[in-house]
Specification:
By secondary structure, the protein is α/β, with parallel strands linked by helices. The protein has a single domain, classed as 3-Layer(aba) Sandwich (Stationary-phase Survival Protein Sure Homolog, Chain: A). The chain contains seven helices and eleven strands. A hairpin with a 5-residue loop joins strand 9 and strand 10. The protein is globular, with a radius of gyration of 19 Å. It starts with a strand and ends with a helix.
Length: 249
């Protein structure tokens, strides 16, 4: 397969390099990723400044690094940089999980989503470990996982979202499950800069009080690899019918 590989941790991140090494043994991999850290940018685009690029070479290959977001990377790749559309868009492996409400903010999921809304099969990989120094085990599993699926049957506006537990040596197996229905408990730390101006630093945690035990958040914390299918179809038939019945003027 021809694979477009991106992420939100940046081109130097351990996760994307592990995926590149593993996937390129069998597939043609085009690695186009942000030059800088882009976590939690969601589906953001760069529109008020040019998107610049730089070739990046590492031990097992080379990539094109963009001064932009994950969505920029996929959008520019599909619209300009690649001579033909890839068979699959892969994003990750992210440092830190992307479960429950995280999928709305995640740059990792957003990179895959840009492929999905362009009609391409897409998958996002994340690891529940912000400090991981080696993700080779997860990358090996990811490559095998990809090869098990007939991706032509999963095209359309959907992203397959895979999350790995922190300790893969104690992994309990794989579970296909729904994303957790939860919200973040946001905390903003207010401080002052040296000039006396206020600024805020976002902190917080997911509200776990009502999380379903069969959701991705709970199963990941229990030690399972979680797999969820996310459908990005914005049409709300029930809402449209309700508004139609109002005979609005």
């Amino acid at each position: 397969m021809n694979i477009l590989l991106t992420n939100d941790d940046g081109v130097r991140a351990v996760g994307i390099q592990a995926l590149y090494r593993t996937l390129s043994r069998k597939h043609t991999v085009h690695m186009i990723a942000p030059m800088r850290q882009q976590s939690a940018v969601g589906q953001a685009l760069t529109v008020f400044e040019p998107i610049r690029s730089q070739k990046y070479t590492f031990d097992h290959g080379c990539a094109l690094a963009l001064y932009g977001t994950p969505t920029d990377c996929v959008k520019l790749a599909l619209g300009k940089l690649l001579t033909q559309k890839p068979d699959l868009v892969v994003s990750g492996i992210n440092l830190g999980s992307n479960v429950g409400p995280d999928v709305l903010y995640s740059g990792t999921v957003a990179g895959a989503t840009e492929g999905a809304i362009n009609g391409l099969p897409a998958i996002a990989f994340s690891a529940n470990d912000h400090g991981a120094q080696n993700l080779d085990i997860q990358a090996e599993h990811a490559a095998n996982f990809i090869d098990q699926i007939d991706w032509q049957k999963l095209s359309g506006p959907r992203v397959i979202n895979v999350n790995y537990p922190k300790d893969m040596t104690k992994c309990l197996g794989l579970k296909v499950c729904p994303p957790a229905k939860a919200l973040w408990k946001n905390t903003y730390h207010e401080r002052q800069d040296p000039r006396g101006n206020n600024y805020w630093w976002l902190d917080g945690e997911i509200d776990t009080s009502q999380i379903d035990k069969n959701s991705d958040y709970a199963l990941l914390e229990a030690g399972y690899i979680t797999v969820s299918s996310l459908l990005f179809d914005f049409e709300d038939l029930q809402g449209q019918q309700f508004l139609t019945n109002l005979n609005l003027k």
